[in-house]
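Quick review question:
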């Protein structure tokens, strides 16, 4: 008997990739292989709609919510499920984006096979708190949160387009005009950083290996810090991450700082603009998400 009372497939019908076709194919396969489980296609209508669809679907029953998307689309679905405040909903992602870091790292078998087998596991999430007091906002990330060079490149990729040659041009352009960001740590110390990444998985951006030994279910996240060192050293770090990896990195369950200047922040593939003097906290949410891998 399936652990799901229904399956909801969420996708962007206007995706420039193959999300619509992939969603239709998954719908057909699951309908054939799980004839007793209703399977529904839910196309999104606007930015952020996947979060709303996932939140509403998660509030009743035991649904499996499948995001046919990249890391950013899956971020919306995961965040929507967490907003619903339920432990009954299960999430999964069918890769249909650019990097697809989460699916690539956690994949253990073809998704349809895992769904049919009802192979549900729990993983940690990163809980992001922006602001303080009554004005604080909470978001969740399944793979990583980054400030500094990582979201700057992501912003330029959205503007410049994706595809191998365009990606190379974008990264070079971003790197050439990048400026470090000032932050204040929780203990009052000030730092100027080139990059600060909190990682729940050990790879990102298709090519970079951030750490060794980190897992999405170990109750901790890795903290990859690149303090202001000059562009040549930043470039060396990027090359090392893409070739042999950065090696073991320190891990934590909590990290807090204040952004002292406006800066972009990236949750998985989603981008957020931080204003100056904004408190930011990252905490581990252990075993927070039920997922199919």
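Suggested answer, residue by residue:
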């Amino acid at each position: 008997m399936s652990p799901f009372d229904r399956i909801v497939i969420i996708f962007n019908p206007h995706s420039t990739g193959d999300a619509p076709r992939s969603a239709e194919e998954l719908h057909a396969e699951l309908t054939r292989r799980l004839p007793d489980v209703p399977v529904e296609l839910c196309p999104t209508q606007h930015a952020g709609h996947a979060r709303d669809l996932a939140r509403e679907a998660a509030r009743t029953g035991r649904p499996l919510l499948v995001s046919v998307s990249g890391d950013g689309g899956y971020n919306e679905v995961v965040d929507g499920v967490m907003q619903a405040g339920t432990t009954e909903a299960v999430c999964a992602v069918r890769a249909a984006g650019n990097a697809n870091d989460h699916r690539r790292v956690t994949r253990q078998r073809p998704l349809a096979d895992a769904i049919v087998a009802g192979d549900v596991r729990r993983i940690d999430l990163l809980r992001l708190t922006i602001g303080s007091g009554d004005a604080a906002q909470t978001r969740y990330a399944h793979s990583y949160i980054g400030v500094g060079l990582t979201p700057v490149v992501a912003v330029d990729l959205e503007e410049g387009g994706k595809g191998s040659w365009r990606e190379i041009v974008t990264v070079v352009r971003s790197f050439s005009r990048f400026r470090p960001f000032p932050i204040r740590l929780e203990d009052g110390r000030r730092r100027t950083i080139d990059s600060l990444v909190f990682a729940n998985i050990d790879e990102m951006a298709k090519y970079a290996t951030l750490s060794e030994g980190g897992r999405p279910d170990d109750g901790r996240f890795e903290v990859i810090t690149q303090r202001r060192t000059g562009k040549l050293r930043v470039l060396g770090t990027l090359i090392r991450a893409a070739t042999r990896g950065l090696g073991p990195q320190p891990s934590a369950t909590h990290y807090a700082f204040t952004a002292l200047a406006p800066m972009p922040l990236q949750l998985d593939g989603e981008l957020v603009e931080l204003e100056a003097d904004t408190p930011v906290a990252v905490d581990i949410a252990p075993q927070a998400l039920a997922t199919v891998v």
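Why it works: The chain has two domains: 6-118, 128-287. The CA atoms of residues 208 and 239 lie 8 Å apart.
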